Amino acid sequence: METEDAALWRAVVAAPHDDAPRLIYADWLEENGSSDRAEFIRVQCRLDRLDDHAPERPALEGRERQLWLKNKASWRAPLPRRMRVFPFRRGFVHPTNLYLTPKQFLQLDDDVFAHAPLWDVGLKVRGPAALGELVGTNRLSQVAGLELDASGLEPGHLSDFLAGPELGNVRTLALRGGPFTPDHLGAVSRAPIARRLSSLAVRSAPALGPEGAEVLAAADGLQDLEVLELVNCGLRDRGLRALLNSPNLASLKELRVPSNGLTASAVRALFECRHLRGLRVLDLEHNQLEDDGARVLALCPAVERLTRLDLGSNRIHRRGAESLAQSPFLSHVRDLSLLGNPCANDPATVTGLRFRFSDRVRLTDR
C-alpha cells in the first residue's frame, strides 16, 4: 500500500511546475516533525516567483541561506551520491549544468531520475540519428530546461523532435552549435513546445540574420515568452526593429541581443515600441551603439521600466556617458553596465556616473 509520503511525492512529480503539490507536501512535512524542510519549500517557492528586486527578496534569501546551512547535510543524505552536488529549487533537488550525449543521458540510472521532479540538461547532438535516440523516451518528461548543442540537423529533424509529447515540461529552450537558419527558428516557433516556453535562447548562429528575427516576430506561438536571448545571430538593426515592433512578443521581460552589429538606428525603434511594456532587462553588450546610441536610450521613455541595462563594449565615450547620467528615464535601473567602454577611463565622466548611479553602475571588472 502506498504511503502518504510517497503519494504526496508522486503528486509533485506529476505536476512539477505547479507550486500547489509542493506546498501540500510542505504542510505534511510540518505536521510530521520536519518544520525546517517545510519552511524551506515555502521560501524557495516564494522566491521563484519574485522579481529580482522585490523588497521582500533579501529577507527571504537570508532565511533560505540559514535553513540550508543548518540542514543541507541531512537533506542531501538520502540522495544518490551523484545528485548531492546539485542545488535545490522550489524545495527539491534540481540537477543543472549537465552536458551529455543522448547515449549518456539515456544510460543514467533510474534512481537518479526518481529523486528530482525537474532537470536542466544540455544534450550534445551530432546529426539526426543521435537526435532520434531521444524520441519517445520518458526521461525527457522531467526536463524543464533543455539546451541542444546540435549540428547536422535540418529544420524537419528539429520540428519532429520538438513535437514529441515527452517534452511537455520544457519551459526553457536553448540552441547552439548549428548552423541554424531562419527555417530552424520557424520549426521552433510552430512546434507545440513554443506555446509553453518562457525562455528561448539561440547562441552563435550568425546565419539567422534579420530574417531570423522576423520569423520570431511573426510567430504567434511565442506570446508567453518572457526571456529572449539571441547572441551573435547577425540580427543587425533591421532584426532588432522587428523584435521591438512585434505584438507577439509583448510578454517579454528580458531581451538579450549582444554581438549583433547593432547601431543607434536600431535602438531608435524603442521610441515607437508600444508592445514591450513589461521589459525589465535589456542587454545590448558588444554592439556599435556609440555615443549616439547611448543618447537615444537616455532620451527614450521606454527605458523607464528597465532595472538592468547592459551597454558594455559599445564604444561609448564621455558624451554618451553624460547623456546616460542626465537621463530622466533611468531612475529604476539597479544594474547599468558600461564595462569595456572608453568612458570608464575618464575620471570626470566616472565621477558623474557615480554621482547619478552610485554603485549601480559597473565600469570595471573589479
What does this entry look like structurally?
This protein has helices at 4-14, 19-31, 35-48, 57-76, 102-106, 110-114, 128-132, 155-162, 182-190, 209-217, 236-244, 264-267, 290-298, 318-325, 347-357, and strands at residues 88-89, 92-93, 98-100, 119-126, 143-151, 172-176, 199-203, 227-231, 254-256, 281-283, 308-310, 335-337, 361-362. The protein is an alpha/beta fold and 366 residues long. The strands form two sheets. An eleven-stranded parallel beta sheet has the order 3-4-5-6-7-8-9-10-11-12-13. Strands 1-2 form a two-stranded antiparallel ribbon.
Element layout with pairings:
Blueprint (H helix, E strand, L loop, with lengths): L3 H11 L4 H13 L3 H14 L8 H20 L11 E2 L2 E2 L4 E3 L1 H5 L3 H5 L4 E8 L1 H5 L10 E9 L3 H8 L9 E5 L5 H9 L8 E5 L5 H9 L9 E5 L4 H9 L9 E3 L7 H4 L13 E3 L6 H9 L9 E3 L7 H8 L9 E3 L9 H11 L3 E2 L4
Parallel strand pairs: 3-4, 4-5, 5-6, 6-7, 7-8, 8-9, 9-10, 10-11, 11-12, 12-13
Antiparallel strand pairs: 1-2
Summarize the entry for a quick read.
By secondary structure, this protein is of the alpha/beta class. Helices cover 38% and strands 14% of the residues.
Strand order of the largest sheet: 3-4-5-6-7-8-9-10-11-12-13
**Proportion in helices:** 25-40%
How far is the N terminus from the C terminus? 59 Å
What is the averaged pLDDT score? 96
Number of helices: 15
Give unreliable regions as ranges.
Answer: none
Largest β-sheet summary: 11 strands, parallel
Q: Which series of helices and strands comes N to C?
A: HHHHEEEHHEHEHEHEHEHEHEHEHEHE
Number of strands: 13
Percent range for β-strand residues: 5-15%
Please state the overall shape, judged from the principal axes of the Cα atoms.
globular
Q: Please give the radius of gyration in angstroms.
A: 23 Å
Structural class estimated from helices and strands: alpha/beta
